[in-house]
Amino acid sequence: MKDAFGIPQSLLVLGGTSEIALATVRRLVVRRTRTVWLAGRPSPGLESAATELRALGAEVRTLAFDALDPESHEAVLGKVFAEGDIDMVLLAFGILGDQAHDEREPVAAVRVAQTNYTGAVSAGLVSARALQTQGHGSLVVLSSVAGERARRADFIYGSSKAGLDVFAQGLGDALHGTGVHVMVVRPGFVRSRMTAGLGEAPLATTPEAVATAIELGLRRRSETVWVPGALRVVMSAVRHLPRALVRRLPL
Fold this sequence. Notes:
Structural class: alpha/beta
Shape: globular
Radius of gyration: 18 Å
Strand content: 15-25%
Strand order of the largest sheet: 3-2-1-4-5-6-7
Order of helices and strands: EHEHEHEHHEHEHEHH
Number of strands: 7
Low-confidence stretches: none
Distance between the termini: 42 Å
Number of helices: 9
Mean pLDDT: 91
């Protein structure tokens, strides 16, 4: 169960090598979290992450999980919940893709959509049902401000995050009153391996800053978290700009 401040004792990470996810887990382990499941494709990176977290004092287990294989999600994630209650599920997997390449190669564009949206819908619903069955828990979904307004530079990635964001909001409404809390996290540009080599956007942030915001959101039982917080105001304005103007802006 969570403590009085909303910090989970047990945590399942879907996307166990995500820099944002690992920054979040490190922060939570220092606070109180003791049991961690890292789910992802088997890799040296996944095992290295587990070793690092064990050194911080957590009991860590790895789990083979593929976002692109939704038929396996119920069985794979069911094994985790069969071991005991999970206080928090962090849905953190996703890929950025390459906009210019993916426009020319529709199969690659579909892979972005299937990973970021279709896989998340499957894993999110399986996790939500398990949390509801145990009667408590939080589902934290990493969305993105890229889903707030279509942009020429990243509309394939942005559209997948827009779908994920709406799905997570609706799932939160569906679970309201059940004891299950859904929190949508909307970071801006995050300096990470995924964005290495890209031009930095205004109000850029770090995995550690996102982790801090997630912890605060859990304590407050927030439904939506913007990182940094100023993006809430910025994106409110951007959403209402005329399309002709948006096309000319360096967004």
